[in-house]
Amino acid sequence: MKKFWLIFANEYKRHVLKKSFIFGVLSMPLFLVLIIGISMLSVWLQFNDAPMGYVDANHLLSDAVQVPEKKSKIFPVAQAVPFKDEASAKAALENGSIQTYFILSENYLSTGEVTMVKNSKTGTNASSDFGDFLVYNLVSDLPDQTAFRLSEGNNLIVRSLEGTRETGADNWMAIILPVLAGVLFLIAVNISGNYLLQAVVEEKENRTMEILVTSVSPTQLMAGKVVGNMLVGLTQLVVWVVFAVIAIKVAPSFIPDLQIPSIETSYLLLMVATLIPSFVMVAAAMGAIGATATESREAQQIASWFTIPIMVPLWFISAIMLKPNGALSVGMSLFPLTAPIALPLRAVFTDIPAWQIIMTLGLLSILAIFSVWLSGRIFRLGMLRYGKRVRLSEAFRRAK
Amino acid sequence: MPAINVDVNEITKSFGTVKAVQGVSFEVQQGEIFGLLGPNGAGKTTSIRIILDIFKPDSGTVSVLGGPMTEEKKNKIGYLPEERGLYQEIPLERCLVYLATLKGLEETDARQRVGEYLDRFDLGQWRKKKVKELSKGMQQKAQLITTLVHRPEIVIIDEPFSALDPVNTQMVKDLLCEERDRGTTIIMCTHQMHQVEELADRIALINKGQTVLYGSLDEIRRRYVADAVIVRALQDLPASLPGVREIIKQNNHALLKFEPGKTSQDILQMLVQNNIALEQFEIALPTLDEIFIQVVQSEGDGR
For chain A, which end, N or C, has fewer CB atoms within 10 Å of the first or last residue's CB respectively? Predict the structure, then answer.
């Protein structure tokens, strides 16, 4: 057992301490922060909180009040200032006391026509700020609840054709999460799998393998490698998730309209319970491929047989959304290679029967154990074989 | 009687239709250097891998340190494979310490012993360098450190002198003798017969997967003794001598190959009777190279 930990620690450290790994882990969130920062900077540069003028010939806004400030102070709401005619508004724009002015047409109520007069200093926020001001004041005579609803719009509920599950359209996180988790899972599996693949192929190529197998059993060696490299991928995943959680916590203070819906704990548990055995299954398969392949490029090609099926549910995402209990959706959530993404995705749109969840998780767990066992067999047969691949039939025959 | 540390008994191993080993047997005693010889593809490496439990034999048995190989016994064995292998992308010291810990050493002990060996092998200044930056000879020495660092009871080395210059070859020889004197059992596979002659106590010659020669070096040499003597005379030898079919003059001595039925005693007697004053008279023992070629050729392998 001690040697398992030695191999595990060595595999983990040799990848995690590499500059390329640290750069790879941090580059994604830093890149996103950079993109968001640049976007915000771009918005900020085009933002102008100077007052906006308006000319209201119909006196629709005679008792107008300003829209209350939102939580964020980064982009304050521009104040709206009334002008009795266009000439005075134009003069104010020219002398810089306002950034733009709006003219409500005489038949505004029937046509909704508003003319915006702007110059080079007008901010990109002006039209939306004036729109908010207009709606806020037009509905001010209505009861508070009605005014609130009119200004906030509808909350659309999406219900699947035969499913019992309903999803709010604004609960974007519930739909995005399984897709996001699936993509992150794919990335993590690819990272771990490729590290494992490289490690095994490299040890075959540089002939370290023969030294290793005279020190530890192939099973210990394989298990240490699978777990060590799996953790490398998970480390990357965890770092990204931590960054995402920080972003989710921090984002609303910058973007007041952004609402982060909560995720049910049972849903998260289902996702974790699906992903862990899937991870072990794929990682073990990658190790076996590394042991059987004769060179790195060949190993990469064989590895794609395992990673491509995992992505398949993403291609059929609309079918899963429309018919979460259809044969295709159920089939994909039961098939071990497509289940990691298909099962959590289905769970968003329907209440999956317990027997299906148990069956999927059972199948995944059995296959994960079988994968580790089989890869151990294949590993033992293939570890010192150069130039000739191990066939599955041979692995089974020798296993007897 | 020294203990038998490795007992290989009639092992066979096939890969598909290829019979790599078909009945190899030998015993290796504690504290001896044992030469395992054979032409390329004879089955030496497969036999070694069976001893090390990398391969399971199809039939036959192997006993190591008094019984079958176990995970604990792996820590008592040092192995230098023919195809050398070290992690190329990590510093030398880290690589050696990791491999030493896999042989059961605690990290602090491993670090200390690796340091001692690195200094002894003049590799101290390279300890922080990546393995790939080392020359082939240096890597060979580093590999030898991984074989010996955990003070194994059995050392199995395949072609230990390849890529080494004469100075380092001598250093490795001294090290192997030192290990033997410490009581370590050493199995040495090599094609370099003069190294075996110099170091090994006993040998086994494997050809076509079978043991064709096995025993102590002296005993084998006597078994293959040539029908010839080496003489150094105080005068020039005549062109022909009775009972001698060929005289081969070499520098200051001559090799006398005698006719069938004659013995070295007959030749000595004949030389005395012919008043040839002798400075040296010696039975010409065959070299291991000659025995190797003779045996392999007689087995029908023309290499």
Answer: C
* DSSP, res B186: E
Residues of B numbered 10-39 whose beta carbons fall under 8 angstroms of chain A's beta carbons: which are they?
none
Interface membership of A219 toward B (CB under 8 Å) = no
Nearest CB neighbour to A216, from listed B49, B84, B102: B102
- Please answer yes or no on whether B85 and A210 come within 8 Å at the CB atom: yes
Residue B31 gets the label, from left (phi > 0), alpha (psi -120 to 50) or beta, of: left
Q: Number of CB pairs < 8 Å for A and B?
A: 48
Confidence tier at B11 by pLDDT (50, 70, 90): very high
Helix axes A172-205, A218-254, angle to 10 degrees: 150
Q: Is the ipTM of this complex over 0.90?
A: no
**Rounded CA gap, A91 and A89, in Å?**
5
Tokens matching residue B192: 């370099």
User: Which residues of chain B make contact with A211, given a CB cutoff of 8 A?
Assistant: 79, 81, 85, 99, 146
pLDDT tens readout for residues B211-260: 888 999 888 888 877 788 899 988 888 888 888 988 888 877 888 888 88
